[in-house]
Amino acid sequence: MARNDDYLPLFETKTAKGLIPFRLFAASMFTSICFIMVYRVNQIQKPAKEEEEALLGRKWTWIGMFIAELWFSLCWILNVVVRWKPVYRVTFKDRLSKRYNEKDFPGIDIFVCTADPIIEPPIMVLNSVLSVMAYDYPPEKLSVYLSDDGGSDLTFYALLEASQFAKEWLPFCRKFKVEPRSPEAFFHRAPKQVEDSAMVKEWTSIKKLYQDMKTRIQTTTKLGRISEEIRKQHKGFHEWDSVSGQHDHDTILQILIDSKAVDNEGKRLPILVYLAREKRPTYHHNFKAGAMNALIRVSARISNAPVILNVDCDMYSNNSESVRDALCFFLDEEKGHEIAFVQFPQLFDNLTKNDIYNHFMRIISEVEFAGLDSYGGVYYVGTGCLHRRESLCGKKHSKTLKQNLINTRYRKEEESASVLEEICRELASCTYEDNTQWGMEMGLKYGCPVEDIISGIDILCRGWKSIYYNPERKGFLGLAPSTLLQSLVQHKRWIAGDFQILLSKYSPLLYGHGKIPLPLQISYTQYMLWAPTSLVWLYYYVVPSLCLLKGVALFPETLNPWVIPFLYVFFGNRAYTLGECLCYGGTLREWLNEQRMWVFRRSTSHLFAFFDNILKLLGITDSTFIITAKVDDDHEDVSIKYEQELMEFGATSPMSTILASLALLNAIIFAVGLKRLIEEYDKTLVTNPFVLQIILCGLLVFINLPVYIAMFLRMDKGRIPTSITCQSFILALAACSIIQMY
Ligand SMILES: *[C@@H]1O[C@H](CO)[C@@H](O)[C@H](O)[C@H]1NC(C)=O
Ligand SMILES: *[C@@H]1O[C@H](CO)[C@@H](O)[C@H](O)[C@H]1NC(C)=O
How far apart are CA 565 and CA 613, in angstroms? Predict the structure, then answer.
């Protein structure tokens, strides 16, 4: 092992700039919040004036506002804790390569998980696999495992094609240092990159190879079955002879590239393994956690690398040096021994300029996760993450036992592929985990839809630390949904999972008590409170508007000094988020889109996530609340609109109805309120108690503009269907008239 005498660290941690202004701002906000609280409490205690006496429920509405504001303040405090001192990591790959010889690098086992050949088309899986096979890393140290929970021979076929194509693709990537190394992404943006004339020729020929392969795979996928001709290519297809269904089959395990295969230049290729673990209707398969655990066992027998990289099949590696970056953390002499996993941000490839559905979540990935990192523990988000095998397998961290990745024996004795396959089939069987600690103490945890997050928290509770690494050039990119509904449904799933953790025994406040730092426990809780916050938010969304209609004032009058803290908290916070977005490279329109998506998500995704969990808790089956997003098949059309940044509503779903009803309700009330304001202009503007309510209502109307446009002006398929518009009108008018009568 070649080592420098001076032990320069392999990575560096920097604290974010601008913390002092932020903390001053936070202090001023806190003061204003206190003023608001004082005002509310005073007003609630005050006996109501004569004319208000008649307004039943005024007091209760005020108490509601008070509770809502108290709740928002709590959330705000959590938010401040998260961003108290974000840190950023910088790696030194040059020091790494100086200090360690390439042949001493630890092996990396890469797990790619796929679950359904329809939702996750084989060609996408293939690109993901090729991009990680082509890492700039000694290929004999890489092993790629594909877990196919769909048990589909179409996916297997794509992987077989990948194993052939890799023989050309890997030397090509090496020779011209191409980036990114997913062929689809590379050829998509390549024309600008091809300057070198030697490259042009090879570029053309390899592009043709890729296109031909893509056509073959897509034809087969369309056909839905493997033709006889293809079946003859590999013995592995025979394994499907005994498959009786997606959830009822033996383990299918094929080593497509074994440890002796070479590419067209005679260099070794990474090992490539296809695994569809055994499935039986009588056994619970535990979703992705089950697949990961099977992969951990199988890979331990085949390559047993000390580092495991996990990527979802809809993501590809956008940087061939990410593995080296991660090693800078694991191999750092001083701090490396306590690091269990290195998490890269989960980002998307095909975003529009202003990120209309706020997929990027710039602030979460740039600021908040950096904040979690400063407390020593970012989440494991389930993709784009490199783990130390032993921490994933349940080992506790101990200071005395410095686990050295370099000296770990990497590959077990060479056995022939067919013998290995036979042994490994057993490891992936349904019964293997019976009466073992798998899914509890070992591997990923079972029994929760967000098993990744719980498993990550559990690893931290066992004394390990995690690192969030968010370089300028992103390590992994995925595909973002391109309609509003898909995006909302995806968020609902995430938020529901987060809320479920809060209700489970893994709630960070209880489970993490004494094991992870308090600020980290608090920071985690922030995300888990999003679901219940939606109720409070809905109150603030609807009640001030309804009260405006009814003539109940909820805020101080225009010239009352108490109005200042309200204005400061509201506009100050907006201004702060805008500043944050611009500082981290966003645009004004992106910020607006983000604000809009917050409104939409809170009134649908978060709300549904809340009720989902409550119904489950009450023992009412969760199937009552399934949302079906009917997605338009017209992809061409959808993606054009996506590029034009036109929101795609299009489908009928309870979510659309809620969005449309709330938008209409606010529009109607805003019109009424404005009319009243104009009528009473001369006498009461200065002491008008409704001005704040009108402003709030007006802002909501402004945020909802795309909804009105989609209801009344747009003619394309992405508009809100007329049936939903009608329903929403009825709902909004009903709400108004009930309030009027009452
Ligand atoms: C992905 O990689 C390419 C170069 O290969 C780079 O130009 C691009 O900025 C990267 N994308 C992101 C989001 O970092
Ligand atoms: C982004 O990817 C999705 C999924 O493949 C696709 O439907 C959509 O059209 C893409 N959008 C753009 C702008 O490329």
Answer: 36
pLDDT of 706:
92
Domain of residue 141 covers: 93-480
Question: What's the CATH code of the domain at 171?
Answer: 3.90.550.10
Catalytic residue from among 149, 263, 312, 373: 149
| Same domain as 415, residue 284 | yes
Nearest Cα to Cα of residue 261 among 133, 410, 110? 133
Q: Where are the beta strands (DSSP E) in 261-326?
A: 271-276, 307-312, 315-317
- Does residue 60 fall inside a structural domain? no
Which pLDDT score, from 0 to 100, does residue 317 have? 95
Global confidence as pTM = 0.91
Q: Which ligand is nearest to the CA of 178?
A: 1
Distance in Å, CA 185 to ligand 2 centroid = 12
* Residue 300 shares a structural domain with residue 447: yes
Given 480, 509, 544, the domain boundary residue is 480
- Residue 452 bears catalytic tag: yes
Instruction: Tokens for 198, please give them.
Output: 């030697």
180 Cβ below 6 A of ligand 1: yes
Rounded Cα–Cα distance for residues 185 and 178 (Å): 11
Domain-ending residue, one of 480, 512, 538: 480
Residue 353: the pLDDT is 82
127: in domain: yes
In a domain, 341, yes or no: yes
Please work out whether the CB of residue 358 comes within 6 Å of at least one atom of ligand 1.
no
Q: What pLDDT shows up at residue 183?
A: 94
Q: How many domains does the chain have?
A: 2
Spacing, Cα 350 to ligand 2 middle (Å):
6
Residue 616 in tokens: 């489950």
**What's the DSSP call for residue 313?**
T
Query: How many angstroms separate the Cα of 464 from the Cα of each of 100, 404, 517, 585?
Result: 24, 15, 12, 33
Residue 117: asked if its preceding bond is cis (omega within 30°), the reply is no
In this structure, are 582 and 655 located in the same domain?
A: yes
Show the beta-strand stretches assigned E in 632-719: none
Mean pLDDT by 10 residues, the chain (742 residues): 65 92 95 95 75 64 93 95 94 92 91 91 95 95 94 94 95 90 86 67 90 94 89 89 85 91 92 94 89 94 92 93 95 90 90 83 90 92 93 82 60 70 88 89 86 92 94 91 86 90 91 92 93 94 89 85 93 94 91 94 93 86 47 59 78 88 94 84 70 91 94 86 92 90 74
Catalytic residue chosen out of the listed positions 109, 325, 355, 452: 452
